[in-house]
## 1
Amino acid sequence: MEDKKENKEWTTAAQFSTYQEADNFRNELNSKHELVKVKRGRDTYRVKVWDPPPKKEEIKKVKKKLKKGDNSTRRRKNDNKKVRYRPEQS
């Protein structure tokens, strides 16, 4: 089985012309975001940040327990069946 990893979506926080400026800004953002990195381009240094996506709350489904003699679910299943009418023979 393959475990698929989701790619992280990084957002660019700022661009700087020197690495020292970018590194100082990265140190400031380190406490606010989970991951912070400096990416080097040709003439610029970009500070990128990533935060984990918020977790979705799982909704628990509650199964309805049927009491003895309760045929309501059975009736609902049979409601959609086609009924064939036979002409009465006399």
## 2
Amino acid sequence: MYAKKRKNILPAVIIILIGLIVVLGVLAYSHYITAADTVPFVRERRRQGERLYQETLARDLAASYPQTPQELMTLFNATTHFLYGSIIDDDVLFERVVLFQREMFSTELLEGNPFQEQLANLLEAIYLLNEYGITPRRPDVVSARYTDLRSAIVNVRQVMVHYDNLYWAYFLERDDDDFWRITGWVRTDSSFMHDFE
């Protein structure tokens, strides 16, 4: 009699185990899909976003602030690409990148460029780029020249898809703590780049 009850229970136990495995599989798949949708990067550019995050926001500027104008501009260029490269799909992360970028600005530039105003200008520029189908690539440092021991000019080229390349001259100075800070920039042309090479 005991063997007969055991035979009746075995199929029920197997069905319950199979049901549990199916439920766990559905839950795991659902979690995977949900997690993928909450990533703060545009799905097609997730790897690029994760790499840029490691280069920028994951960096502790207090412990490893860039030592040269070229290093500072390379980091700044990474944040610029992060912002303009249609990579971020999250308002909070976007604002964090802008705040991180502002840590490289001089006090005077910060005072003359309030956060909300900078954010609004960035969003407007990105909207216009998208509207006209212009895609900026990652900016690169072309040359740097020290004008004296405490100031430098760094030339940057911004390659654009469906538009002419842009050229910028960034002005940097050392602050009272001896850190390089961006004091301003102007748009130039390619001939200006060669003046400093």
## 3
Amino acid sequence: MVAAQVMLMVQAITGLLMGILCVAVGLYILIARRDLSSITSISGVNVSLSQSFLGEAAGVVIGAGVVVIALSVLWLWGGIATGRPSNAARWVMAVFTILITLLDIAALLSLAGRGGRPVGAVIFLGYELLILYGLLLDGDTRRAYEGR
């Protein structure tokens, strides 16, 4: 159980860092959009970026970062709550992990169908399955939650 709890917290902290990075990139785009709109060539591709487009793109990136931060905070709370012998927190985190595992399987199938390289999706799927094992199947976890 401790391993699953630590893995949940590592995943939540990684999500927090990624969300903060998204917000930072969005703020950079928002602040430097005048300089970015003057870029006319990126790697030989002629691009014309208007300031309004960059402002909208910054809003989308910042919004995505805020959503990732909010979900990561909930994930971190769930990881901490599973440390107490409460079956409710354990099952809530198990359901969330199952949903993320299903999304990861869908991403894996999508990558495989397009001829992509699904190495990252396979690693993430294995990580999620280890968390599920720690939350649901491990004998020590079941004994701890049953009060033995």
## 4
Amino acid sequence: MKEKTISLDKHKEIVDAYVNEYKEIIKAYEHEIEEYKKKNKQIKPKQIEPKKDTIKIRNRYTKDIIFESSNAKNIKEAVEEAVKLKIDLSKANLSYANLTEADLPRADLTEANLLKANLLYANLSKANLSGANLSNANLSYAKLSWADLSGANLSNADLSKANLSYADLFFCEMDKKVFKGIAEKWFKWKVK
């Protein structure tokens, strides 16, 4: 068999042809890359906002979420928002909640847990607090006129200067100190 021999010039010509072909391929890819970059500059990547913390109000017995707010900065604002939206907050767990000066007229807080809640200057007029646990709660200066407190636990609650006019206190659970304060202020009774 006879071997083919190629001249050096011919070999260089073949290599140059391959090099030119690869240069064209590279040029085409570079063009595609530039087009891709232009498109991606027009389409701005979606900014992923960090998830804002929400404030949740849970059922005191089942722990289910009754209301959730992403607008509120604190529990007071969340409860006020829920009341404005007429959300049923019965059986809500609001123990230890700072609800100072909260505006909660006509709130449905039936059987709510407000143990040691701070309700100083809160407006709870015409609120339903029947069966609610208000033991050790601070209700000083609270507006409780026309509120339904029937069956509520008011043991050790601070009701000093609270407005209880026309409030329903039927079957309330209270200690002697609370009873004495209510009896002397609202009924002008002398309790020993």
